[in-house]
Amino acid sequence: MAEPIEELEARLAKLRARLREANRARDTATVSRVRAEMRIAEAAWEAALAAESAEAAPRPTGTVPPRPPEGVPVREQVHQSLAILGAPAAPKLISATYQAFFAEPLLTTKLASLRRDEERSFTSQRYARPYYICAALTHDRLAPARGLLAVSSWPLERRIIAPLSPRTDFLTHAIGAAEHMQRLTAAGHSPSAEAWRLLRRFAFNIPGAYEGGEPDPSQVISAARQEAAVHQETDDSQRRSAATRARAQLNDIQELFGVSSLRILRDTGTS
Q1: pTM as predicted
Q2: Could you tell me which residues come within 8 angstroms of residue 95 by beta carbon, excluding any fewer than 6 positions away?
């Protein structure tokens, strides 16, 4: 039986506390072990969240998915979109994804200060929340990747943007959107016109994913995975290398929100 999401959140909180203690004690063996446990727990939490968002009260086949309750915080709207997409994304795509699957607008103007607000919250009260909307990091300077948002509970490797990452992340987005449409259909809901439009946009740009009409989610998934396999090994290697360097060089805040531009200028000798 899957572990309830509340228990996963409690376990993650304990693991984060253990990680901080081991880090302060410079116990590298324990740090590595706890990070591995956290990755497993975080993956289970993401799966539980996706399953929770797909659940709905029984409805006749052909109905549209239920709208979320009004007053959903912007950070939660962003998190729900990113949980579907599965990789760092720009505000415009996050907004389009939320509207496609939750029939509710998410204005990109509301996202302008979100990452800064999340950084302030994390700085003042570390790990008080189960997740934060944070930054994707450039692989070379470990600075915030311009315009890309991510989720703190993701492994650091997933938040690194290496040279091939924009394409592999695009393919991850396509797979995530297609899989969510399959979950909706399995639950007896008809994806919205916006959802089909979003999937079509992905399919147009993946060889073998689109043959006209409404795209087939399973065909999109298959074609995206086939292309991803071409880039995956190199991209994964570059991300792992950058993530290893980040863990050695950055503190907790910098791992989530990147190295400030001021430090980059100082390190490169630019005035």
Answers
A1: 0.74
A2: 81, 105, 106, 107, 108, 111
